[in-house]
């Protein structure tokens, strides 16, 4: 008879089966009906639905005001401007509590909702240098028992227009950032090739992935998207490059999107969307059907850019579905995939999912299936990281090391 640290009995999987899940040393060792396993602890899930740990594909741990005093949103003075938003953000963050406090509070908020992995963009610029990176890396390490964090070195204030940032990005990757980021090569830096030369050069030289914020719209944005796809294919970086937002894909005619989607699929470039507010956003099903990995994340949560958000990725999946007009079971399942398997693929997560050999990261909820999970976002939720309970009833559980 095999042994386990914990045996979760009567777990209902997303495929409808009711099984026992055995966990040893933080990994799922078996999934079977009425498993003959000797376990140190046995928990009866009573037929509750077991979902893989949710994956937030885009968040900013250094920007949020969760864990701080309420900061009233400050609108741009003459229509949305990335430069003005960056200015307002820096002014607000100057009086904010330390990143260690705010990042910890945001991590706990997300953990309590069922997130077990996230990709955080961290500002790298001439003003902050690598300080934000160092503090987010410290927060990542301090909370590793309940959340796994990937870090993107993000040039929020540009690269070409901020001489010296290119070197800082390279230094950030050498210091431990997992990916190098970018921001609107045309709209912010006004130098598409100069901007992309830097970030693709770092990625190629250091062997890391890329995640580019791309707000530039219309045919200009499409030109940049196709440029990025071609560079990705030329350097053999398929599966390691993401474009976050890519609003242009939601602003141009369908035939243009189809042409661009083919390039993205061939290059292996993923698209991240959070289906934001009043913005157009990429057509999810069109891209998916073309073979593009499209996934989701919360992006800004209660910061200088956006006053909304509670870290709930099931709600994010619902927002994507609602704004996309999803109504069939297949469509709702596609929205769910965007915060689970698709996001895990984009982040390159090894051994993800409720499967034998995978890390025992999962969420237990009262729902019949993933469709109900998306539309109802049921609570309470029990959240497990490496087989250990890390959140129950909306509250993070303190772990003894």
TrEMBL record:
The Amidohydrolase domain, residue ranges: 41-390
Stored InterPro entries: Amidohydro_3 (IPR013108), Metal-dep_hydrolase_composite (IPR011059), Metal_Hydrolase (IPR032466), Metallo-hydrolase_Enzymes (IPR052349)
Entry-linked Pfam families: Amidohydro_3 (PF07969)
Protein name listed in UniProt: Amidohydrolase family protein
Source organism: Bradyrhizobium brasilense
């Amino acid at each position: 008879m095999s042994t386990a640290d914990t045996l979760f009995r009567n777990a209902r999987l997303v495929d409808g089966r009711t099984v026992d899940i055995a966990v040893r040393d933080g990994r799922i060792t078996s999934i079977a009906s009425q498993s003959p396993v000797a376990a140190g602890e046995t928990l009866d899930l009573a037929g509750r639905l077991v979902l893989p740990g949710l994956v937030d594909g885009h968040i900013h741990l250094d920007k949020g005001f969760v864990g701080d005093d309420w900061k009233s949103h400050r609108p741009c003075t003459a229509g949305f401007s990335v430069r003005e938003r960056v200015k307002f953000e820096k002014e607000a963050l100057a009086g904010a509590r330390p990143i260690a406090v705010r990042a910890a509070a945001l991590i706990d908020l997300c953990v309590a909702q069922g997130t077990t992995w996230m990709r955080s963009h961290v500002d790298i610029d001439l003003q902050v240098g690598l300080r934000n990176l160092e503090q987010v890396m410290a927060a990542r390490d301090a909370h590793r028992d309940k959340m796994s964090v990937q870090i993107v070195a993000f040039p929020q204030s540009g690269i070409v227009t901020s001489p010296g940032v290119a070197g800082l990005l390279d230094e950030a990757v050498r210091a431990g950032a997992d990916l190098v980021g970018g921001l609107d090569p045309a709209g912010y830096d006004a130098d598409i090739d100069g901007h992309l030369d830097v970030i693709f050069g770092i990625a190629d030289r250091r062997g890391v992935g890329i995640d580019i914020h791309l707000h530039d719209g219309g045919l200009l944005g499409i030109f940049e998207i196709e440029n990025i796809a071609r560079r990705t294919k030329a350097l053999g970086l398929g599966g390691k490059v993401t474009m976050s937002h890519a609003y242009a894909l939601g602003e141009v005619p369908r035939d243009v999107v189809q042409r661009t989607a083919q390039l993205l699929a061939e290059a292996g470039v993923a698209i991240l969307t959070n289906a934001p507010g009043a913005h157009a956003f990429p057509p999810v099903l069109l891209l998916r059907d073309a073979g593009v990995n499209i996934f989701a994340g919360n992006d800004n949560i209660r910061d200088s850019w956006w006053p909304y958000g509670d870290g709930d990725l099931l709600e994010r999946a619902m927002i994507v579905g609602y704004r996309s007009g999803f109504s069939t079971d297949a469509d709702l399942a596609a929205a769910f995939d965007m915060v689970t398997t698709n996001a895990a693929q984009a982040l390159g997560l090894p051994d993800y999912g409720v499967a034998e050999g995978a890390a025992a990261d999962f969420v237990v909820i009262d729902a019949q299936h993933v469709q109900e999970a998306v539309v109802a976002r049921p609570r309470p939720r029990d959240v497990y990281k490496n087989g250990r309970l890390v959140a129950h009833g909306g509250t993070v559980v303190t772990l003894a090391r």
